Structure formats: C-alpha cells, structure tokens
Amino acid sequence: MVHGEPRLTLRVARVMSPVTVLGPGRRVVLWVQGCGIGCPGCASVDTWDPDGGTRLDVVALVGQIGDLIGRDGLDGLTITGGEPTDQGEPLHELVTLLRARRPDLDVLVFTGRTHRVAARRAPRLLEATDCVVAGPYRRDLPPNGPLVASANQTVHLRSGAARERYAALLEDSLAPGLQVCVEDGEILLVGLPRAGDLDRFEAGLAAAGVRLEGVTWRP
Question: pTM (2 decimals)?
Fold first, then answer.
C-alpha cells in the first residue's frame, strides 16, 4: 500500500482460532464473505451474500489475526469463504502485512475456482500463498484425500518448503476432517465434511434432544 492511499477493507464472515483440520498444525482461519460461485451442497451458504458479514479495515484485521497467532502459538493462516479470489487485493495486503510480522507464517487458500482461473483473477494473492486448494465443490465426487472436499479439487504446493510441510498431512488417510467448537452460544462444525455428514450431525443432535434453530449449509 502506498502512503496516502485509502486503506483497504475486507468483507469478513468470521475468524476462528485455533483450528486443526484446515491445514497442517494449529491455525487461524479467516472466512471471507461473498461468493459468486454458489456450489450446490456447499457447507457455508451463509458466506455467499456479498452484502453480509462485516466490513473490516485490513490493517485492523492484521492486528486481530496477529494477536491470535501470538496468543495461541499458531503455525499458519487458512483463508476460505465465501470466495477469496473475489477479494484478492485486500487479502494480498493482509498476507503481506502478516508476513512482515511473522515471515515463516504458512498461508493456505481454498478457492472454488480452478487454479488457472483463480491465478488469473487474483494473481498476487496466489503468489503470496504456500498452498492453494482449487476447484468447485462437487457433492457427487467424494473426496479422495485430505484437504479436498470433492475428488475434482486440486492441491497446489508452491515451494519445496511447502511440500515438506504438507507431506505428512497429505499422506495421512485418517486425517480428521471435522472439528466441533462452541463459541458465543453457537455450535461450529469446522472442516471439510463428506456428503451427508452435516445432515447426520444435525440428526444426531436431534436424537439427543438438541434442536438447531438455523444451519449455515441451508439458505
């Protein structure tokens, strides 16, 4: 950012830490708000509306995320959504400023666009990441490994250091896919659910006498 230019803002759905199912190690996850793709069966329909969430100053958000990284001793940042490449420039600024504070911070981006389209739409964001998981969610194609929600999605490691860092996770066929958290009276199911997992989770809670008033995977 050039001195004197207006500060960038980012529309955000939520920030959560620590998360252990969306990349190696313990991470902070940023869900951006707004998605123009709208994959059928998406687990985060609540993040589609481009006018939803909260508009935040990027510099202030860097402070918030940086404090979480220091407080919780985190290894990386995962950016998902929503669709990150719809807000490529403010996210690139966010990553750049965080890396100025923590040069070894691992950054993983999930995009619902193919890698080629995502790189064309948000080139500076993708160049600043260590790992990109790309491709639309297809509920008819069960996942064939960690970090992907459906078999058509591809994992792109951008350096030798990243390949070494992600090797154990990508080779672990038993890597956990979901993490359950309770925050501010909400039950949060974080991760990459398989087809039917969310409905089974809701049914299991109902059988135990817990009724969900609203879920993020339905409009």
Answer: 0.89
